[in-house]
Known about the structure:
The chain is an all-alpha fold. Helix content is about 80%, strand content about 0%. It has helices at about 5-30, 35-50, 50-75, 80-90, 90-125, 125-145, 145-175, 175-185, 195-210, 215-225, 230-260, 270-310, 315-320, 325-340, 345-370, 375, 385-405. Helix 12 (about 270-310) runs antiparallel to helix 14. The radius of gyration is 21 Å and the shape is globular. The model has no long low-confidence stretch (mean pLDDT about 85).
Amino acid sequence: MKLSGNERRKSLEKKLNRSLLLGAAFLMATSATGPGFLTQTTVFTSQFAANFGFAILTSVILDIGVQMNIWRIIAVSEKRAQDIANIILPGLGYFLALLIIFGGLAFNIGNIAGAGLGFDVLFGIDAKIGAIASGMIAIGIFLSKEAGRAMDRFTQVLGFVMISLTLYVALKSAPPVGEAIIRTFYPVVTETERTEFFMAIVTLVGGTVGGYITFAGGHRLLDAGVKGPDSLPQVTKSAVSGILITTIMRTVLFLAILGVVAAGFSLDVTNPPASVFKLAAGDIGYKLFGIVMWAAAITSVVGSAYTFVSFIQTFSNRLNKNHKWITIGFIVVSTGIFILTGRPVKTLILAGALNGLILPVALSILLIAAHNRKIVNHYKHPIWLTVFGALVVTVMSYLSIYMLIAEIPKLFM
């Protein structure tokens, strides 16, 4: 049956809308699944074994609550986070943008380093040369005529590649799936492990929706025109999809690591994720790790660069007009710092602490905005989302401040 012109137009709009929602979800998800994500999941799984499944499940619930709060408020207000903050308190948006810029730049250096490592594993070339090549690929995406669509497609394809290859390694490692399922809902953690186990959950939350990460998809939807109260069902669907995509990748990686750990193998402390892939699937697995590492790193570079610029381009017409070149400059600077200094460990750790603070600060601002008529007009934010958000703000604030006061000074002793 041949479709009429109006029906074809509606079908095309539906496909385009679905592509935009999926693109935002993947942009957020791939921003979260960077080199740190791979190492973090490996270390925690080797430490807590099957019990780590419970930490993943708990973090997913918290992540969805955080992301639904932030994305819904951005959509309803039809404003970026920094502009919302400036309405609440003049200058607050600049402070929030500064946190995002510093944290994003520091972590992007690590992302560039991860991309270089991926090239090294795959082709045996110097990591710095690989970093330069990766930086040029990322720049090429933003130079394309339809940069937004190119970014969406790039993150979707590499997201699927990461999940598929990691799933292959998980199947090769033959994890105890039954035990993993049981411990996901009924963990057995000793009293001495409880504090570290709780910290692992908070780390997962910060690594998934902390810093610039959760804003990547929210701002992408806004740029694509998905906004206003009528868009909330779509926004909610995309927000949850982003978390679920991240969770699928983390779960598959968790099972791959669990299979290796359960078999009695010891991981290489200098590069735990690489040793998992190699122990599970031999030399082929090691090469697959190179692909996964590069894909994880380069997509995080793209997500970080996009979000960095989205936080400053509304401050002046000149910044908005030149946002593409600012994005490219951000990638060039990140790559240049890595080439000159290597991976700056202290800077990355400081940025990690700062990223932990960004989540409660940003979420607090948006929760206040959710009940400000000047920002959301007649929209009524669900009480359960407000309570959920306030709980996350309290827990993350306490632990982030603890890290800053108790742990960071030790780095300089």
